[in-house]
């Protein structure tokens, strides 16, 4: 992997994750207590031996940049390793990044300096575990010029994805059908009664990538996106191969999450506290790294009979948490959270620094970073009351509490 360059697309605003993305980019949103969303793609890179990484940022990137600087300083420049955070510098035209392809196009000079044989383009806002060495080996085995990672999904889920039409012998992709709403989508050659959906993970031979990006940049009608423009234009001119995603979790269902909405974010987090979660965070052979803040161990106090007891069951509890006479069940408690006496938190996500006052009742909610709920507050029991209080309530009934801006 020494001659492969990884490019992480980390500039997305994540509008469907609002208000969690109100003040930070989607890749920087906390996940699973101690992690950020970007940590999963970065961990895949490091565990796969990819140690030359460009991280392209744009939207509200300060928190993301700090996270990378303080938590991912494990690369040796002396050994030719790096993670470079590259904001839009408008080197080739006067605009900011106009799309995923344009973001890479604006950094052609940086790519040329590194002289990679292949470039792997990754999204920094997905949750999954994958060995990119296996995908590169497949790319080379089938003499591909472009390889697209695909995920087997049930036919009813095809309407949510771009579905690939794949030759069952050569695995060459003939076409894509974007979110097919009618008819019977083309079946996958990799699994019975399944379809193959694009994961937004691509390996390019560098010369092919550079040529494709220059052509796309010259097209005034293009939206400058890999999925909508660059790859469809290459299908019939270049050898574009499908790679079937192998999930390192080895569970019943292959785990890959976009967490593009509040509801999917909430469900993916709460899955972690299941007895047998689909995403295994305890695999020492494929560790997920993050920026660890200095904090004392979690603390549970007031072990008295009756209602006043500091206890958390079926939950993730991060360093620096204090459960002071409150009750927590099936929840995620991020670093620095405090749950005070007689409070009751159930099926909820408390983001860093959230403070739950005495006698609060929290149900099916996300409490944003730094929010201090006053004594006796009730969240998640009455959606209309939550909306009237200025909280955000999703279609799935998840209430998000956040501090309003002045």
Automatic annotation (TrEMBL):
<dbReference type="InterPro" id="IPR005835">
    <property type="entry name" value="NTP_transferase_dom"/>
</dbReference>
<feature type="binding site">
    <location>
        <begin position="178"/>
        <end position="179"/>
    </location>
    <ligand>
        <name>alpha-D-glucose 1-phosphate</name>
    </ligand>
</feature>
<dbReference type="InterPro" id="IPR011831">
    <property type="entry name" value="ADP-Glc_PPase"/>
</dbReference>
<comment type="similarity">
    <text>Belongs to the bacterial/plant glucose-1-phosphate adenylyltransferase family.</text>
</comment>
<keyword id="KW-0547">Nucleotide-binding</keyword>
<keyword id="KW-0808">Transferase</keyword>
<comment type="pathway">
    <text>Glycan biosynthesis; glycogen biosynthesis.</text>
</comment>
<feature type="site" description="Could play a key role in the communication between the regulatory and the substrate sites">
    <location>
        <position position="58"/>
    </location>
</feature>
<keyword id="KW-0320">Glycogen biosynthesis</keyword>
<dbReference type="GO" id="GO:0005978">
    <property type="term" value="P:glycogen biosynthetic process"/>
</dbReference>
<dbReference type="InterPro" id="IPR029044">
    <property type="entry name" value="Nucleotide-diphossugar_trans"/>
</dbReference>
<feature type="site" description="Could play a key role in the communication between the regulatory and the substrate sites">
    <location>
        <position position="96"/>
    </location>
</feature>
<feature type="binding site">
    <location>
        <position position="198"/>
    </location>
    <ligand>
        <name>alpha-D-glucose 1-phosphate</name>
    </ligand>
</feature>
<keyword id="KW-0067">ATP-binding</keyword>
<dbReference type="Pfam" id="PF24894">
    <property type="entry name" value="Hexapep_GlmU"/>
</dbReference>
<comment type="function">
    <text>Involved in the biosynthesis of ADP-glucose, a building block required for the elongation reactions to produce glycogen. Catalyzes the reaction between ATP and alpha-D-glucose 1-phosphate (G1P) to produce pyrophosphate and ADP-Glc.</text>
</comment>
<keyword id="KW-0548">Nucleotidyltransferase</keyword>
<dbReference type="InterPro" id="IPR056818">
    <property type="entry name" value="GlmU/GlgC-like_hexapep"/>
</dbReference>
<keyword id="KW-0321">Glycogen metabolism</keyword>
<dbReference type="InterPro" id="IPR005836">
    <property type="entry name" value="ADP_Glu_pyroP_CS"/>
</dbReference>
<feature type="domain" description="Glucose-1-phosphate adenylyltransferase/Bifunctional protein GlmU-like C-terminal hexapeptide">
    <location>
        <begin position="296"/>
        <end position="401"/>
    </location>
</feature>
<comment type="subunit">
    <text>Homotetramer.</text>
</comment>
<feature type="domain" description="Nucleotidyl transferase">
    <location>
        <begin position="6"/>
        <end position="272"/>
    </location>
</feature>
<dbReference type="GO" id="GO:0008878">
    <property type="term" value="F:glucose-1-phosphate adenylyltransferase activity"/>
</dbReference>
<feature type="binding site">
    <location>
        <position position="162"/>
    </location>
    <ligand>
        <name>alpha-D-glucose 1-phosphate</name>
    </ligand>
</feature>
<keyword id="KW-0119">Carbohydrate metabolism</keyword>
<feature type="binding site">
    <location>
        <position position="97"/>
    </location>
    <ligand>
        <name>alpha-D-glucose 1-phosphate</name>
    </ligand>
</feature>
<dbReference type="InterPro" id="IPR011004">
    <property type="entry name" value="Trimer_LpxA-like_sf"/>
</dbReference>
<dbReference type="GO" id="GO:0005524">
    <property type="term" value="F:ATP binding"/>
</dbReference>
<dbReference type="Pfam" id="PF00483">
    <property type="entry name" value="NTP_transferase"/>
</dbReference>
<protein>
    <recommendedName>
        <fullName>Glucose-1-phosphate adenylyltransferase</fullName>
        <ecNumber>2.7.7.27</ecNumber>
    </recommendedName>
</protein>
<dbReference type="InterPro" id="IPR023049">
    <property type="entry name" value="GlgC_bac"/>
</dbReference>
